[in-house]
Amino acid sequence: MVNGRTPSVKDVARSAGVSLGTVSNVMNRPEVVSPSTRERVERAMAELGFVRNESARQLRAGTSRTLAYVMLDGSNPFFHDVAQGIELAAEEADLSLFICNSNGRADREEVHLDRLMQQRVQGILITPVNPEAPHLAEISRRGIPVVIVDRVGVGGAFCSVAVDDVLGGRIAVEHLAEQGHTRVAVVGGPESIGQVRERLEGARQIWAELGLPPDDLIYLPTAALTVAEGRSAGERLAGIPARRRPTAAFCANDLLALGLLQQTIGAGLRVPEELAIVGFDDIEFAAAAAVPLTSVRQPRQELGRAAAQLVLDEATNPDHHHHQQPLFVPELVARASTVVRSRAY
Amino acid sequence: MVNGRTPSVKDVARSAGVSLGTVSNVMNRPEVVSPSTRERVERAMAELGFVRNESARQLRAGTSRTLAYVMLDGSNPFFHDVAQGIELAAEEADLSLFICNSNGRADREEVHLDRLMQQRVQGILITPVNPEAPHLAEISRRGIPVVIVDRVGVGGAFCSVAVDDVLGGRIAVEHLAEQGHTRVAVVGGPESIGQVRERLEGARQIWAELGLPPDDLIYLPTAALTVAEGRSAGERLAGIPARRRPTAAFCANDLLALGLLQQTIGAGLRVPEELAIVGFDDIEFAAAAAVPLTSVRQPRQELGRAAAQLVLDEATNPDHHHHQQPLFVPELVARASTVVRSRAY
DNA sequence: TTGTAAGCGTTATCAC
DNA sequence: GTGATAACGCTTACAA
C-alpha cells in the first residue's frame, strides 16, 4: 500500500532500486534477470503487497487469461459436473473460468455473451438454448473460439463435444425391452430442446427395429426437464387404465426420472416391479435415490474437459482449421430401478 | 472488423466523423450528446461491430464491474442456490459474477482469491474453508470488500450473512422430540467445519434442556458432508443393537440425510416408522426424495442476495463502517421422513 | 455540444 | 542484464 493507492510496478521498481522493465521481467521472464536482482525485486513485491493488475496486463498483452462457460440450466447438477471438468482443464492451462447460467432463456444468454465479449475472454464454451442462434456464429466470426457442449453444432460451424443422444435413447429402451417390457412410456419435453428430441428419437428407432407396435410406446410430453414435471408425468401415467398402462418409463433426463420415481413410490407402487424407470445423464443423485436409478451415463466431467481442450486448441493453435465434433458414447448404468434383484449402486 | 483488428473507439469515431471523446460520451453519458450525433455514432458502432474493451475501461475508470463468489462445495446444490441469489442481485446492479469453487481445500481457495485480486473484482463473497484464515483479512485490508456467506465472520472483521445454525440444530431435534423420539442420532462431520459444529451443538443444547439423558443422543461422526458418508453412517446405525438403536436421526446437511435415507430404505426399514430423518439446508432434492425429507430450511437464494447487497454497500457506500452480520432464522419444513401420515411435499 | 489530451498499469522493443 | 519509452483502448477533465 503506497499512499492509499495499491502499489504498481513503478512502486516496486523504485522500492527495489531497479527500473520498471526489470520488474516486469521478473514476472514474465524470470530467467532473463540475475538471481540477486530478482530476489531484491521479489522482496520488494512482498513488502509492498504488490498484486499485478490483470486489466492492464490484458490490455497491453492483448490476451486474456479467462475462459467462460455458459450453462443451460443451473439447477441441473449435470451442468455443474461439466463445469467442473472445464475448470480442471482451465486450471491446468493456468486460466480462470467464468461460469454463467442462461437458465434456458435466450435473452439471458445474449446478455452473458455480450459481457463475455467485452471481457475479451479467450474462448467460450456454451450449452446453448439454440445452437443455430445467429449471435453464436457472429462471435465465432469475430475470432473468439466457441465450442458447443452437450450438443452438436449445426453444419460444422463450431467445434462441439457431445454424447450420441440418439444412441443413448436406443440403449435405454433396448435395456427395458430386454427386461421384458412391452409397453413403455417415454417422458420428456419440450421438443424444442435438441437433446430431448434426439433421445426420444433413439427410443422410437429401436422400438421399431425390435418390431414392437408403435402404439405401445407411449409418449408423455413434459413442459420442462424438472423434478416437478416428472411427478406430473407420473400422475398422468397413473391415470392410464391398468391394462394399457406402461410397465416401464424412459425419461429424457434424471430430474424427470427422480420426479417420476418419487410420485410412483408415493402412490404406493413398487419400483421396478410395477414400474421400471430409466433416466439420462447419470447425475450423482441418480445413484443416491431411494431406489437407485438406472441411467444413461454421460461422461460429464470428460465432456467439459474435452471441450476446454478444443477451445484452447482453437485459441492457440494456428492450424486449427476444421472444426472437430467428437461424439462420446453413452453407457447404460443398470441399477435397482430397472433390475429386480440388484442392489448395486 | 477494421483491418483484421477488432474496432476501437477510435475507429468508430473516424467512421462517424466525430471525435473519440464523443464516442465515449455516447456510451457513458448519452444525455450529454445531441440526438443526431448520438444516432450517427450508434450506427457506426453497429456497422463496425464495435464491442467495448472492458479491460481498458476498467484500467482507466479504476473500477471493475464484477463480483465474485467462492463456493465451498460445488457438488452441493445448496451453494448453487446461494450463487443464484447472488447472481440475481448482481444482475440488478449490472455486474458480472465470477463463480469459483474451492471444494473445501484451502490451497484452491487461495489460488482463486489471488486471481480475483488480480482482476480487481469489486467485491468478494465467500463461504470460506476457514473464516479465520489470514488471507481473508489481508484482502479486506487492501480495501476489497469481503462478505462471508453461510458463516459468521469472527470478531466482526467482516460483513457476513448466515443462518443461526445453533438454532437450526435445536429446532430439528426439538421436532424429533415432539414426535416422541427419545433416542436420536446426530450425524455429521468433520467438526472442523463450523456449520457442522454449531448444528450439532444446537442439537445437544435442546436435548439437555428437554431433560433427556445425554447418552441417548448418539453422535455418529462423518468424514465429510456427502451422500456416501450418509450411507456409511446408516450402516453404522444399523449395527447398533436394536434396543439401543436410535429411532430418529438428525443429519448436519441434506446430502448426508439423503445417503442415510437411501441406506435405510435399501436395508428394508421403513421411514419414518422405523427411522425418522431430518436434514439441513432444504435443497430441492430433499423434497424430491422418495420419502420427502424433513429439513431445516435455509433461505438459500435470499442468503446470496443479502450478501451481494452487503458487498455492494461496502463497495460503494462511503459510510459503511460497522460490519453487519445479519442472522437469518432457519425454519423447519416437516415432510414425510418424520411425520407418519403426511404426504405433503 | 464537441474536441483535445493526459493518463490508468502493464508489456515489449530497443539501445545501452 | 538492465533501463528508457512507446503503445494497448478507454475515460474524463478541460478547452474550444
UniProtKB/TrEMBL annotation, chains A, B:
The lineage of its organism: Bacteria, Bacillati, Actinomycetota, Actinomycetes, Micromonosporales. CDD domains: HTH_LacI, PBP1_LacI-like. Residues 7-61 form the HTH lacI-type domain. The keyword Transcription applies. This is LacI family transcriptional regulator. PANTHER family: HTH-TYPE TRANSCRIPTIONAL REGULATOR GALS, LACI-RELATED TRANSCRIPTIONAL REPRESSOR. SUPFAM superfamilies: lambda repressor-like DNA-binding domains, Periplasmic binding protein-like I. InterPro entries: HTH_LacI, LacI/GalR-like_sensor, Lambda_DNA-bd_dom_sf, Peripla_BP_I. Keywords: DNA-binding, Transcription, Transcription regulation. It comes from Actinoplanes nipponensis.
